[in-house]
């Protein structure tokens, strides 16, 4: 591939015209529209953060949005505080009781996960909500707190134009299979692992 920095002005303009033509052809082909199943997974940081970016974008379009957090709930997430300004459009439910190593009660964790899922399902099935974020649901699925096929059936039968985001590391292969968009966050460096820097306000919570 030719280095674009070494192209003449005429060569560069020709190359950009060709790129534009290719892009326009792709846009013509991409004429379908549907509510997406979106999975943010992987060991890297940023899964919930990326999902919240889509939440903000949807709110900016005037859409109704629901957030259900499956793990967080033992503390007040900072994003919940700032998103209160969208209270007419947004429903926010932090329904977990913290990390499993803190709760140490599998049966109660399963019960809380089931409650959170029922809440999430009520929004998924409500066509007035254009986006539903199921935050950290991949974790509770991996732990066996919810039955994957129940979630898959609901996602495959959701309203046509509803987008659903599922976050959390270790997304199950069967969830990845039915998803329309899957992003895997890869861990390269982390301040806790390399430098023993604790979680900080505004970055981790």
Attribute tags:
14% strand; 43% helix; single chain; 9 helices; 205 residues; globular; alpha/beta
- Annotation field: number of helices: 9
Strands in their spatial order, largest beta sheet: 3-2-4-5-1-6
Summarize model confidence as the mean pLDDT.
Answer: 88
> What portion of residues is helical?
40-55%
* Class from helix and strand fractions: alpha/beta
| Measured distance between first and last alpha carbons | 43 Å
User: Would you report the number of β strands?
Assistant: 6
- The best one-word shape is globular
The main β sheet shows up as:
6 strands, parallel
Strand content: 5-15%
SSE order:
HEHEHEHHEHHEHEH
Rg for CA atoms: 20 Å
Q: Low-confidence parts lasting 5 or more residues at pLDDT below 50?
A: none
What would your notes on this structure say?
This protein has helices spanning about 10-30, 45-60, 80, 100-105, 105-125, 135-140, 150-155, 175-180, 190-195, and strands at about 35-40, 65-70, 90-95, 130-135, 165, 180-185. With about 200 residues, the protein is an alpha/beta fold. It has a six-stranded parallel sheet, sandwiched between helices. Helix 3 (about 80) links the parallel strand 2 and strand 3 (about 90-95).
Helix/strand layout:
Blueprint (H helix, E strand, L loop, with lengths): L8 H21 L7 E5 L5 H14 L4 E5 L8 H5 L7 E5 L5 H4 L2 H19 L6 E5 L1 H6 L5 H9 L6 E5 L5 H6 L2 E4 L6 H5 L10
Parallel strand pairs: 1-5, 1-6, 2-3, 2-4, 4-5
């Amino acid at each position: 591939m030719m280095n674009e920095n070494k192209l003449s002005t005429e060569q560069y303009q020709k190359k950009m015209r060709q790129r534009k033509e290719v892009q326009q052809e792709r846009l013509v082909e991409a004429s379908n529209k549907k509510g997406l199943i979106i999975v943010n997974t992987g060991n890297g940081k940023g899964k919930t953060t990326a999902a919240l970016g889509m939440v903000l974008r949807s709110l900016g379009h005037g859409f109704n949005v629901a957030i259900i957090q499956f793990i967080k709930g033992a503390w007040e997430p900072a994003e919940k505080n700032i998103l209160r300004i969208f209270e007419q459009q947004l429903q926010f439910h932090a329904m977990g009781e913290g990390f499993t190593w803190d709760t140490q009660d599998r049966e109660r964790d399963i019960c809380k996960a089931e409650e959170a899922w029922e809440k999430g399902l009520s929004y998924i099935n409500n066509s007035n909500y254009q986006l539903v974020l199921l935050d950290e649901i991949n974790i509770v699925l991996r732990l066996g707190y919810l039955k994957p096929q129940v979630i898959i059936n609901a996602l495959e039968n959701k309203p046509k134009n509803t987008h659903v985001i599922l976050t959390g590391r270790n997304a199950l292969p069967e969830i990845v299979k039915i998803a329309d968009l899957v992003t895997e966050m890869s861990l390269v460096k982390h301040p806790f692992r390399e430098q023993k820097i604790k979680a900080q306000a505004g970055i981790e919570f």
